[in-house]
């Protein structure tokens, strides 16, 4: 075989390797540019994000549903009651020489027991905390004759409210409070009371 055949073959092989190497460099260069473009776009998008919360967003809810586990062995007094439209209902307060409506939670006998004063009578029953929601079992009450007044007028609606809780939460930061939101949008807010 003539030597020029080997030289031509070697030359073609060298050109082919050179072309292949050139194509690989171009492909790597193109891939590098694409990655650089994606990184640059990500950086620009990150810089474009607003640094302040949306003013139209609703305020955060200070009443933590998980904190309802902290209700065990606590005593509460009804501080306010608003209807679904935010209109307040008259609520008796100890400061007005009226007996306040109360709600007490106890685990003294190893069971969760609720009790309190409903405006005219005392009541008692069991309570449970499931998935951060407060729920009451059947409540039994005394049957005293009730004089007219704000407390007596709230007794039946109050006991009914305890059976229709849609959401419950405890605000642990001062002022500490328990809030019960009913199925129909009414809100009962309780403040802690001394033992």
TrEMBL record:
Coiled coil location: none
Record's keyword annotation contains Acyltransferase: no
Domain of life the protein comes from: Bacteria
Domain DUF306 as annotated: residue spans: 69-190
Keyword Repeat listed: no
Keyword terms, alphabetized: Lipoprotein
Protein name per UniProt: Putative lipoprotein
Organism per entry: Caballeronia novacaledonica
